[in-house]
Amino acid sequence: MGSSHEGTRKRVVVAMSGGVDSSVCAALLKEEGYEVIGISMQVWDYSRFTGDAGETFGTCCSLDDIHDARRVAEQLEIPFYVVNFEEEFQRLVIDDFVDEYFLGRTPNPCVRCNQWIKFELLLKKARELAADFMATGHYARIERGDDGLLHLWKGDDPSKDQSYFLFTLTQEQLARTLFPLGGMTKQETRALAARYGLRVAEKGESQDVCFVPDGDYVRLLEEARGTDLLSGEIVDRDGRVLGRHDGTYRYTIGQRRGLGIAHPHPLYVVGVDAERREVTVGGADELMAQGLRASRVHWIAGAPDAPLEAECRIRYRHRPVPCMVEPLPGDEAHIRFATPEKSVTPGQAVVFYRGGEVLGGGWIEEKL
Amino acid sequence: MNCTTPVYLDYNATSPVHPDVLEAMLPYLTDRFGNPSSIHWAGRQVKGAVEEARERVAQLVNCRPVEVVFTSCGTEADNMALRGTVSASRGRGNHIITTVVEHPAVAETCRMLEREGCEVTRLAVGRDGLPDLAELEAAICDRTILISAMFANNETGTVLPAAEIGAIAVRRRVPFHCDAVQALGKIPVDCQTLQAGMVALSGHKIGAPKGIGALVVRTGTRLHPLILGGSQERNRRAGTENVAGIVAFGAACERAAATLAEGAARMAALRDRLEEGLLRTVPDVTLNGHRERRLPNTSNIAFHGAKADSLLASLDLEGIAASSGSACSSGSLKASPVLAAMGIAPEAAAGSLRFSLGPETTVAEIDRVLALLPGIVARLRSS
After folding, report:
1. Which residues of A touch B303 (CB under 8 A)?
2. Domain count along chain B
3. B305: domain range?
4. What is the pLDDT of residues A289-299, one digit of tens each?
5. Which CATH code for domain A227-282?
C-alpha cells in the first residue's frame, strides 16, 4: 500500500488505555512526526462486572477508559479504533488465571496479557494496518546492543519501572515496539500531559487486575468453577490441623491475614496444595527459600551457555536481589539467591536483571 | 489520513440531509417555532406543515395520513409496535413470532418482553437470509398476538417476503408489524400490499435528519401508546412534535417518491460494478445474502481470511467509510448474529463487510474502493 505512507513518515499504532501514560505516548509520537493511530482493546464484556448498585469500577480497561481514549484521540486529531479481544482475553488470560488458582498457584495476568494480547494480537493488528511500529506507555527502554541484538532495559523512573511485565518479549516483537516513556519519570509524563492540555492529565493510576475491578477475585473463581471445591484443612509443617479454610485459592504464599487461627507467634501461609486441598502455615522463618525452579524461561537476547550472576525479582514490587541463574534443559532454570528470600510464590514471574537490563525471566514452579 | 475526497458507502447507517430537505425544514427551527397544539397564530403556522408532512409520508407508503404516527426514530417505532401490541393484547395471548435476522430494535425488545413473560418464536432463515413461510404457518397458535418481521435486512440487504407474511397474517387473523426502516426509499413500501397493521419507518436513512421516524398504525390496529402525556399524534404518541424533523421527513419522502425508481437502478448498477470488480480482483470472496431478492444499494461481502475490523480501519485510513456486523457499546466489532443465523461460517462472517450506497454515490467512489481494497485484503491476509 504505497499510499499508506506519506513520504517517509512512519506509521505507529499506539495502544491507548485512556490513561495518562498512553495518552502522552500518542501526543509525543505525533509531535515527533509519526503518523499516529490510536487503538483501544475491549477485553471483556463490561456488563458482566457492574456492581450490585449498578456502579462501575475504574481500572485499566473499563468502558469509561475507552471513552477517555477516544476523546484524547479526538483532541490529538488522530484516527482511533477499538478492537474486540474479548474471546481471546477470556481464553488466554482469564481462563489461565482461574486454572492457576485451582492448581494452587498465584497467577500474574498482566504478564500474560502483555505476552498474548498486547504484543501478539495487537501487534498483529498494527501490522494489518500497515504500521511500522506499535507503541505502549510502558516505562521501559529498548536499545540495540553491540551484539546487534535488541536489549530491554528498565525505565528511568524506578517507581514506575514496568519491565517486570515485559520479560517475554522476543526480538521480533521488540523490533516493532516503541516505549516513548522509557526515558521519563511519571512526573515528567504528567507535566507533558498538562503541557499538551490532555484531558486525562489529572487521572489516577490504574491498580487492580482489570477483570477483577472490585478486587474480589474469589467471586470470579467461584463463578467460574463453583464454590467449596477446594475447601479443606489448615495445617502446620508437621501436619497438625490448626483450622479449616474455604478454598485453597483464597491463600497465597506469605499471606498473614485471614487465617483465623490463634497462635502465640505470627503465622504465615508457607504452602498451598490444591490437590490435597491443604494450606500450610508456619513462622516467618519457614517462608524463606534458598532459591527457586523456573519453567518456560525466556532470554531476551539469547540464553547464556553457563550459569550467570544476575539479580532477580520474584514479584512486581520486589527489589531485585543478587542471585545465580543456572539454565537447564527444557527452558527451565534454577535460581539461587545470594541470601535467602521470603515468599517464593509459584505462578508468579521471576525476572532476571543485570543492572538496568532485563535479561529474561520465567515462571516460578517451586522453591528450592 | 489521506488528502483525497472521502468516500461514503455506509448509507444504511445514515445518510446526509438532502439540501432541499434542509431548506424545507430550516424555517421551522427559526421563524416558525410554534407548538402545533397551540391555538394561536404561532401554533397555526406549524400545524399545517405537520399535517402536510404526514400526507407526504402517507403517500410514499400508500396509507391514510391519519395512520402515520411520528416518533423520534425507527427504533422507537419498533418498540412502540411490539410493546404497544403486547399491552393492548392482555388476556388474549402473549405469543410473538419474529425472525432471527431482525434489527436490535426488534430483537432486543423481544428479548425484554420474553423476560417480562411473553413467549417468542424466532423463525430461522436459510443461507439466503429468507425464512420458511411454512414454519411461520406452523408457529401461529391461538395465543399469537403479533408477527414482527423486517422488510429488508440492514446488514445484507436481503428482502424478506413481507407481503406473503402479511397475507398469512391476515388469513390467520394475527396482527403483522413490518420493520421497513431499511426498505424505505430503496424499494417500494406499500402498506396495502404488505397487509401490515404496523410499519416502522425512519427519516435519517432517506435524507431527513436524525431524530425523526414514524410508525404507520393502520386503522383497526389495537395498540397502546408507549409514551404517555399529551394528546399529540391522536393520543398515539405523546410529546411536543419535532416539527422541523417532521417537515424534513415529509420533504424527504416526497423526494423519495419522485426519485425511487431511477435512484434504485443507478445504485444497483454501481453496486454491481463494485461486486463484479471485487469478485474479479480479490481471490476468496463470496457474497452474503440472497442474490436477487435484495435492496439495490446494499452489498455484504465476505473476504475470507481477513478481519473485518482491520479491513474497515484500513479503508477508513484511506478515507473510505464502510461497515460490518454490529458494533458494541465501546465501538468495537462483534460477530454478526445475522450472518451467523444465516449459517455463514464464523471465519467468513468475521471477514464480512457491508457497503451501502446512496443517491449521491459516484462511479469515482466505487472505483477508488476497487483500486484500494485488493491491496488491503492482500496485506491483511499476509500479516
Report:
1. none
2. 2
3. 7-16+259-382
4. 999 999 999 99
5. 2.30.30.280
